[in-house]
Amino acid sequence: MARHNGGRGWYGKVVGAALGVTVLAVGASLWTAQADAVNATSPKATAPARPGSAVKPVAITIAHASDKGARGVNITIDDGPDPVWTPQVLDVLREYGVKATFCMVGTQAQAHPDLVKKVVADGHRLCDHTVSHDTSMDKKSPAYRSQQILGAERMITEASGGVRPMYYRAPGGAFTPDSRKLAASRGMRPLGWNVDTKDFERPGTDTIVATVQQELPNGPTLLFHDAGGDRSQTVAALRRVLPWLKEQGYSFGFPVR
Asked: Per the residue annotation, which of 112, 129, 133, 225 is the catalytic one?
C-alpha cells in the first residue's frame, strides 16, 4: 500500500494489546505454486509453518516483473482480508478468471482466517504486509521491523492452515536493507508496485480506471486495496479494468520470485 501518512497506519490502534508481537524471536532469521499440492479444497503448506523452520531463501531485490513476461500484469490487493470487501474482490477475480496476490496485514489475517483460506483455495498467493501496517517502520529499530515481519508471517501462515506468504510488501514502501534481507531469508520476495491506483483515497471509479490505463507503461504490478474503508470504488474499478486488460492483450500472472 502507498504511504498515506507518516503514522502507524490505520491498524496501529488495535495491535499492541491484541497480538503481543514482541514474543517473536528477532534472530529467526521466476514462479512456483502456492502449495506443494492442492487437492480439491485443501491447499497444503509449502513448508513447516513455524517461524525459524527451514525455508528456501529468495532474492532480496524488490520484485516488480511478472512471470508472464512483457505482456504480463500482476494484480496485487493490500491491507485485508476484510469481511465486507475481500469476498467482493474475490468474486470479481473469479468472474474474469484472474489470480492475484493478496498482501495481508497480520491482525486482519488473524481476525478472519476463513477469508485467508478462501483466498488460498481460489488459487491466489499470499504476501506478508506486516503485523500492524506501520508506514513509518523504516524509521524504527531492526528489532521492531523483525517483529512486524515475522509476526505477520506467523499469523498469515496459521490463518491459512499452513500456507506461507510468498512475498513481503513493506507498508507504504518502507523497505530497508535489513527488512528485505530478513524477508528473503524466510522465502518471501520483497514486492513493490508500478501502478498505484490510489484507490485508497476513493477518487472515484473513473479516476481509478484512468490511472491504470495511463500508468500501465510504468510496469506490470498494479496496487489495489480490499480493506481500510469503503472499497466499493475498487470493486467497480476492477470490474472494468480486468476485461480492459484482457482486451489489450495482457495476461495475468504473479510477481517473479
From this structure: 225
| Single-letter amino acid code for the residue at 44 | K
pLDDT tens digits in sequence order for the chain, 257 residues long: 555 443 334 444 333 433 343 333 333 333 233 333 223 333 333 333 444 457 999 999 999 999 999 999 999 999 999 999 999 999 999 999 999 999 999 999 999 999 999 999 999 999 999 999 999 999 999 999 999 999 999 999 999 999 999 999 999 999 999 999 999 999 999 999 999 999 999 999 999 999 999 999 999 999 999 999 999 999 999 999 999 999 999 999 999 99
Let me know if 4 is a catalytic residue: no
Name every residue whose Cβ is closer than 8 Å to that of residue 31 and which is 6 or more positions away in sequence: 67, 253, 254, 256, 257
Is 79 assigned a catalytic role?
Answer: no
Which is catalytic among the residues 78, 134, 199, 226? 78
85-97: b or e for each residue (b if 16 or more CB lie within 10 Å)?
bbebbbebbeeee
The answer to whether 79 and 228 are in contact (CB under 8 A) is yes
Backbone angles phi, psi at 148, to 5 degrees: -65, -45
* First vs last C-alpha separation in the chain: 19
